[in-house]
Amino acid sequence: DAFLNLKLGSWHSPRLCTPKTNVMFLKTHKTASCTILNLLYRFGEKHNLTFALPKGYHFDYPNFFNSRSVKGFWWQNGQHYNMMSSHMRFNRPEVQSVMPADTFYISILRHPVSLAESSFNYFHFLAPAFKHSPSFEDFIANPWKYYIPYLRFNHLARNMLWFDLGFDHNAEFSLQSAQSVVAEIQQTFHFILLADYFDQSMVLLRDALCWSLDDVVTFRHNARTNAKPKCLSPAQEEQLKKWNALDWYLYQSFNKTFWEKVERFGKRRMDKEVAILQARREELQNLCLLKEGKPPKVKQSLGQGVQRCQTGYVTMMKHTLNSNLSISDKELCSRMIREEYEPVFYPSFMDEAPCQGCPQLGPYQ
């Protein structure tokens, strides 16, 4: 405890570097991206930064991003924004027309096996391939029985990360073309986070952006509470990897570079800073949140409005603040639990923790 308190103090000390304030976050689906969004909103508000916001729902997703979808943007006046973080299908030239030249580009990936299980549960009524499958096991056994390429929203059922990054998710796997895509992503994005190693990602992100400890401390947002992720058989996992071959190659590639970054950062230093991060999160959770909070019951809305906490086969976790907070603590805690609100007619994109106890791809495997 004494060590952690000492280190917590050092993490609050001024950094010798200059904090980066121009950040583009490609918000992928089912990857803890809502949690990242929360910390970006907090940092932007703290430093009075500008955000590129969509005119309507996100940035015309699932169509490719176009600068015309940014609210109030007019390219001829040389206008730029500090932050961009809503869902989109990435389109580099159009994004670069909105963001400054020195923008730091980040995104987040998740192991395709746990991502597929989570997506099936959440997007069951949206993706036609999932909707027509009696069960996840049936879909794994014969995905082509239910999947029709290019049918709207079926990208949620196959190579979803590849799609969000702006590439053809229905393309046949080719090592040469996959290597070319990964090289293009590496040229564009300065850092790819991994949802499966979220705290390590936050440590590396904080170091890369030159931000403070509290800038990257988060509570889990939009995690499901009513069902445990299924642990699949090795054969089922292999089938999902083959079905999502492009996403699997993508994840393997950036898993490798992620752990290379950890090596350069220092494994012992990483372990210490993860412990500090977790201690600060626990401290803030004890301050801010009621324990054993239950997700509220949500009725189906009609027309305009928002539907939170429940969708498909899952129930969403919702944070509830302690009632005896001081004014300053309540302001801090309210920012920590702030969520993204979505229209009811198109489900909010829930993010959740990977399957606990299921096999995960470790360093260099």
From TrEMBL:
Please provide, alphabetically and separated by semicolons, the GO molecular function terms listed in this UniProt record.
galactosylceramide sulfotransferase activity
The record's annotation in InterPro entries points to: Gal-3-0_sulfotransfrase (IPR009729), P-loop_NTPase (IPR027417)
GO cellular component: a single term: Golgi membrane
Keyword Transcription regulation appears in the UniProt entry: no
State the superkingdom: Eukaryota
Keywords assigned by UniProt, alphabetized:
Glycoprotein, Golgi apparatus, Membrane, Signal-anchor, Transferase, Transmembrane, Transmembrane helix
- Would the keyword Membrane turn up in this protein's UniProt record? yes
Q: How does it sit in the membrane?
A: Single-pass type II membrane protein
What's an example Gene Ontology biological process for this entry? glycolipid biosynthetic process
According to its UniProt record, where is this protein located? Answer: Golgi apparatus membrane
Give the record's family classification: Belongs to the galactose-3-O-sulfotransferase family.
Name the UniProt record assigns to this protein: Galactose-3-O-sulfotransferase 4
UniProt source species: Erpetoichthys calabaricus
For this protein's source organism, the top of the classification is: Eukaryota, Metazoa, Chordata, Craniata, Vertebrata
